[in-house]
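REVIEWER CHECKLIST
Item 1: Sequence provided? yes
Item 2: Single chain? yes
Item 3: Sequence as submitted:
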Amino acid sequence: MYKPINFFKVLTILILLVISTFSNAQNVPSHDFLISGQSHFGYIISHRNNMANLIKGHIYGGELNYIFRTEGCKTWEQIHKYPEIGVGFLHLYLANPQQLGNLEALYPYTNIRLNKLNRKASLYLRMGLGLAYLTKAFDRIENHQNGAIGSHFNAFINLRLNSDVMLSKSWRLDSGVGLTHASNAAMKTPNLGLNMVTINLGLSYAFGNKICTFKKDSIPPLKKIWQPSVIGVFGIKQLENPGGPEYLAYGLQANVYRILNYKNKLGGGIEMAYNNATKQVWINDSVKNAGASDIIQAGAKISYSFNMNRLSLPIDFGVYFYKKQAYNGIFFHRIGLRYLITKHIVANLTLLTHWAKADYFEWGVGYQF
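Item 4: Structure as written out by the authors:
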């Protein structure tokens, strides 16, 4: 019988080793950072009827984090109330060793402060995006009942409401509740994905500067201007039949945002896409031979973007005004990341969805005017 590893013992040993190593180091680091260990307990959400057979019990696990605390040396750090930036490694036992196995995730994240600056207690919104490995994935012969995950490697998204209380200059008590999602955005089907809710509790130990010296300078005024951009993207997906061919999709997006303040932008745009998976659906329907004009989709959208220095988190809500194929409906949505590499060049990693159904990841690059 499968016996899950005692991750809590492993996590405790790792934390003690790290603390011992840094405590005995001759050169104390000049930057303030924390090592954090967290325990997790929760459950998998049955968001589809055919998910129920995969849920066998509560899930649990542990997490190890490296956290760097900003002190306001840069303007954007002061604007966002001195956020924390971290890297986490998460292990979750999914209570179904035969069909789901375990989840291992490595991901960067940021803790955005929600309350006023307080050295004793803080409230954070934690946002993370990284890579997850599921030890069990769909297999036609050995694991055909796993309709949730079609690949071992998956995208990992974590949103968490975190609170912490400083117990001393070095020790911090952390707790929170979070929502975690793992899927591959239909690059490999089946791909219902895993949605998990967990509560977490743990301890953090601070190294370097025990007490942060927060800088506070006058914030320069911001020009509230319109900011247009053009982004080209591509993606890969499968249709719903597992093991089928992979199809390439292309897109071109024209966006314009109104800068409201340092954190928020609001705007909209138009876009066009050519999806070879849609072409295959058309062929399968055998209505007629599909030409390029039958496959091209064009839509308009309203957009919001949350910004942290060069990094932005866009959210789009759109409707197709030109679409001859009924596949996936007329509404589309988008979430993801964009990073301003230079003053004008922007890198794009977004997820195109149709309501709660993921279509494909959009990888791309664009020009911001």
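Item 5: Key structural point noted by reviewer: The chain has a mean pLDDT of 87.
Item 6: Recommendation: ____
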